[in-house]
Amino acid sequence: MKKVLVVLIGALLINQSFAFGLKDVGHAFDKSYKCKSNDQGCKNREHLLAAAKVAAVAVAVKYIADMIIEHHSKKVADEEGVVTDYKNSHDNLPDKPQASAYTTNALPGSVVQPGKKVVIQSDIVVVPGREQKETLIQERLAIFDNEDNTKELKSLTKDVNEGTKRAGHYTNEFTFTLPEGLPQGVYPIKTTLILNGEEKQTLNNDLQLVLEVNSLGEMKFIAAR
Question: Which of 5, 10, 58, 102 is 20 to 30 A off residue 157, Cα-Cα?
């Protein structure tokens, strides 16, 4: 079993430019420390399980790194309309531009299959500032691994109002297709609203990737073998 573990991890280190070290296994996945000190069988099983998880992370990194993310933004209302609405409930504009609304939604839903298009759609309302009129609105999309939720697999930052750099009401969309061969599981998706280079708010949209749909159209996980 030890030989299998070494061969598997060695293959990952050789074949992946983003390479995982043994420290990743020990600190992130390997739970052999929970086994009794004299239970070598338990330790071997935990070592192999850790190696399998590292292999799954490596697969996810490779597939998502190659994945194409498309971007599209649209103005819903101009700055003047947003200012009018804001002043209905506030005496003055803020000193600096700020978001009065920021929401995101995964379409067609949070449970998806590989090969199917996914849209992360955001609704953004930004009011201008009294002292800082020009406003560059950006949004950042980040996709994290299903095994190690602290590991960012891919990110993309795009301008929402590049043509005008004015406040207003906008919709913003990131569109991608989770590739065939990607391990099933829950992939955390985070979007961050950025105003004039400053991160203002981060929202979460977890995607649960499943590999099977039954005759009723219900998605479900395939049991691991």
Answer: 58
Coil, helix or strand at residue 178: coil
pTM of the predicted protein model: 0.71
Q: What is the pLDDT of residues 105-150, one digit of tens each?
A: 999 999 998 888 999 999 999 999 998 888 999 999 999 988 888 8
Q: Which of 35-44, 56-65, 83-92 has the lowest mean pLDDT?
A: 56-65
Do 170 and 162 touch, CB atoms closer than 8 A?
no
Identify the residue whose tokens are 């052999």: 32
CA pair distance 105, 111, nearest whole angstrom = 12
Tell me the C-alpha distance between 42 and 1, whole Å: 11
Nearest of 20, 25, 19 to residue 47 by alpha carbon? 25
Query: Are 193 and 200 within 8 A, CB to CB?
Result: yes
Q: Are 107 and 171 in contact (CB under 8 A)?
A: no
Measure CA 36 to chain center. 37
